Amino acid sequence: MINVILSGCNGKMGQVITRIIEQDEDVRIVCGFDVNTAMNNGYPVVSSPFHFSDPADVIIDFSHPNSLEPLLKYAAEKKIPAVICTTGLLADQQKQIKAASEVVPMFFSANMSLGVNLLIDLVRRAAKLLEGNFDIEIVERHHNLKIDAPSGTALAIADAVTDTLSQPYEYVYDRHSVRKKRSATEIGIHAVRGGTIVGDHSVIFAGLDEVIEINHHAASKEIFAVGAVRAAKFLVGKAPALYSMKELVSTI
Ligand SMILES: NC(=O)c1ccc[n+]([C@@H]2O[C@H](COP(=O)([O-])OP(=O)(O)OC[C@H]3O[C@@H](n4cnc5c(N)ncnc54)[C@H](O)[C@@H]3O)[C@@H](O)[C@H]2O)c1
């Protein structure tokens, strides 16, 4: 049985994780951390990690960037591995995760969906094979309440493509302001906003007389929770290092 501490347990993702773990006989939540301690989840909830001293195997964090520093301190002191899923972290906070990973295993991915990370893996392979002969465009679609564009996941896909390619590619977000043909070394990144779309990503490789398109469609936030629980199981027993979905996907 894997004993989990759930940071941000009373938020939207925390509640999805609570539901998923209830149905998983290999995992149980032994404590929740949240500034909001008012909800009854069937496990104790404390406002600060340092109010909980029982043993635990792994932390799953879907909370807020402000909670990161005490959480990392706690994880490092108690030697409890942590899956950090909170996004919007500053560069300095990313460095803090890296530093903590030198003493305790850490897992970080801005997108915990197994499917999205499989898409990234497939896109890497496609980019390598098709380099030079295909134009690459990324289209993402999200609900009408999303403020940022393009999505962090679209940028992560583009970064995975450019990591793979042998020459530098330029990201182009707007073709409205310039009238010229696209260059062979650009990646067009486009954002569609509307309705209640949870999150769709398409990567288009357009070549001479053929088009390859790799798509991912998210129907609910549950996919991130399923990936986070899988990452927690993956992390238990690992040596201290910084892991991501890239390592998890490559082990499957
Ligand atoms: N990596 C991924 O795949 C992925 C997927 C979904 C959401 N997220 C991220 O997870 C985080 C949580 O998302 P959500 O939709 O559940 O948000 P939410 O606002 O519904 O929940 C956040 C919870 O954290 C708590 N919290 C806030 N500040 C805190 C602090 N200082 N200490 C402890 N708890 C604190 C809040 O009380 C709340 O219960 C966000 O950063 C979101 O972007 C990541």
Helix-residue proportion: 25-40%
Order of helices and strands: EHEEEHEHEHEHEEEEHEH
The CATH homologous superfamily of the largest domain: NAD(P)-binding Rossmann-like Domain
**CATH third-level topology of the largest domain:** Rossmann fold
- Main beta sheet: strand number and arrangement? 7 strands, parallel
Mean pLDDT: 95
Overall geometry: elongated
Q: What's the level 1 CATH class of the largest domain?
A: Alpha Beta
Bound compounds, each kind once, are: nicotinamide-adenine-dinucleotide
Measured distance between first and last alpha carbons: 22 Å
Based on DSSP secondary structure assignment, what is the total number of beta strands? 12
Q: What is the second-level CATH architecture of the largest domain?
A: 3-Layer(aba) Sandwich
The residue ranges in which pLDDT falls below 50 over 5 or more consecutive positions are none
Q: Order the strands across the largest sheet as they lie in space.
A: 3-2-1-4-5-6-12
- Work out the helix count: 7
Structural class: alpha/beta
